[in-house]
């Protein structure tokens, strides 16, 4: 059984994330999406809401499991016998930090990181930008799945 994890904050999941998860799900038998909990960062969506959205949009792949985790990514991997982390690289600007994390994670536990070049359609896309544009009434319907758009509309209406 070949397993990999796609980790992130996913606040909320975007079409860019979904593209990477879809591609990982073709390469591996089982893909975990790890919603990493960062208590220092208050998100727009609660962890359970993020998990629910990701489960809905990845259900069609058939081999994706979504979980949250509070701790080191390498411990998530160790506990589930996952040897590989799959990450999207949007641009050279992502590379510095991603390389540091990949080297740190490999040094900590031997886990490998595989970088997948982001689909150029999404190379500018981030959850933060989606939230900012949506908060000011901009159209993000081409950047997130329809149920995420709905969740954003509802959440931003409330605030
Ligand atoms: O979506 P993000 O916020 O860019 O994802 C970053 C994330 C969550 C993948 C990264 O911060 C992470 O792995 N956090 C878990 C804690 C950890 O293992 N830190 C050491 C990284 S070398």
UniProtKB/TrEMBL annotation:
Residues 5-132 form the Cytidyltransferase-like domain. Its cofactor is Mg(2+). InterPro entries: Cyt_trans-like (IPR004821), PPAT (IPR001980), Rossmann-like_a/b/a_fold (IPR014729). Substrate binds at residues 9, 41, 73, 87. ATP binds at residues 9-10, 17, 88-90, 98, 122-128. Its EC number is 2.7.7.3. The record marks 17 as: Transition state stabilizer. It catalyses: (R)-4'-phosphopantetheine + ATP + H(+) = 3'-dephospho-CoA + diphosphate. Pathway: Cofactor biosynthesis; coenzyme A biosynthesis; CoA from (R)-pantothenate: step 4/5. PANTHER family: PHOSPHOPANTETHEINE ADENYLYLTRANSFERASE. HAMAP family: PPAT_bact (MF_00151). Homohexamer. Reversibly transfers an adenylyl group from ATP to 4'-phosphopantetheine, yielding dephospho-CoA (dPCoA) and pyrophosphate. This is Phosphopantetheine adenylyltransferase. The gene is coaD.
